[in-house]
Amino acid sequence: MNSSSPGPLRIATRASALATWQAEHVAALLRAAVADCRVELVPVTTQGDRDRNSALSTFGGVGVFTREVQQAVLDGRADLAVHSLKDLPTEPTDGLLLGAVLPRAPRCDALLLPHGRPCSSLEELPQEARVGTGSLRRQAQLLAHRPDLRLGEIRGNLDTRLRKLDEGEFDAIILAEAGLRRLGWENRISLVLAPPVMFPATGQGAIGVECRADDERTRSALAHLDDPVTRIEVTAERACLGALRAGCHAPVGAWSTVEKTPTGATTLHFEAVIWSRDGSQRVNAKASGPGPEAALLGIQVARELREQGGGDLLR
Ligand SMILES: NCc1[nH]cc(CCC(=O)O)c1CC(=O)O
Predict the structure, then answer these.
(1) CATH number at residue 145
(2) How far apart are CA 244 and CA 251, in angstroms?
(3) Are 231 and 315 in a shared domain?
(4) Quick one: 158 and 281 in the same domain?
(5) Which residues contact 282 (CB under 8 A, 6 or more apart)?
(6) CB 212 within 8 A of CB 246
(7) 172-176 and 130-132 beta bridge pairing
(8) What ipTM is given for this predicted complex?
(9) Residue at 169 is within a domain
(10) Mutation test of ligand 1: which of 66, 86, 185, 202 has the most ligand atoms closer than 8 Å to its C-beta?
């Protein structure tokens, strides 16, 4: 090997099917965007992968799927880390920065019925139907519309969850549309659940790529991959969640859109909602403003949610 040629860019990733798809996607984008760029994957096992039985909302706290992937980059075993932004804690990690936010995939949640049976609304589910989702955000919103539903945690990778559904363990399950589409399961979507029925999690559908803050080579490679519109959206969403001191398991939903003005400037419209666990109470707040002020708008919305008692709903 020519000793002056830089080594490959090493991507730390979990080994799950979705994480591997996302890492391969980043690898392909880097190869296309950066001349002579070699890329390789470095698989990492996380606490979330090792503990397959506990309820996700009860163990390890935030970052169970991301901490060890980040550590591989901090240790220099890898140069960049690919995350589902929904799973990446909002608290910054010393020594790392978000070098790229990829263009967002469809960000809504999806309802899946056994064997892909179609469904036109939540009202169609049978009385007291069993719905598999451990997410407090999804549970609260389901109960807001259908207080009779019986909700329970479902864990395992996508294939396992679909099998449990088809074998009759649940009448329906909820999954993020983005993950289903990436793995080619979009034909299993019975109904897309969008606001005002179901607000997605902050960062849902977006992929973030971290690198060491002092690694100029990787930073400039990642700059080619960054999508400014998604960056604005997730900046507001993550700032809001962080200001609420909440994590991805909290009953918090967000919706942001970016409008481009004729002069090329951006306007962000941002809304966030907090529910009580049983879905019977909710507070919401909205703000609009220039895209570059996304973080401030997110924090302002968090403050308004608190003023309306949102903090009590999170406790
Ligand atoms: N918490 C797991 C997780 N993290 C990201 C996704 C989906 C992909 C995405 O939102 O980008 C999922 C699966 C799910 O919620 O169904």
Answers:
(1) 3.40.190.10
(2) 11
(3) yes
(4) no
(5) 144, 273, 274, 275, 276, 313
(6) no
(7) parallel
(8) 0.96
(9) yes
(10) 86
Whether residue 199 lies inside any domain: the answer is no
CA–CA gap between residue 113 and residue 111 (Å, rounded) = 7
Ligand 1, pocket-test mutation among 13, 14, 18, most atoms within 8 A of CB:
18
What is the span of the domain harbouring residue 166?
Answer: 109-193
In this prediction, residue 57 has a pLDDT band, given cuts at 50, 70 and 90, of: low
Give the nearest ligand 1 atom to 182 CA.
8
Distances (CA, A) of 204 to 42, 169, 233: 24, 26, 11
The β-bridge partners of 290 are: 267
pLDDT value at residue 2: 47
**Angle at 73 (CA atoms; ends 246, 227), nearest 5 degrees:** 65
d(CA 200, CA 217): 34
**Cα–Cα distance measured from residue 220 to residue 147, given in angstroms and rounded to the nearest whole number:** 50
Domain tally for the chain?
3
Whether residues 75 and 217 share a domain: the answer is yes
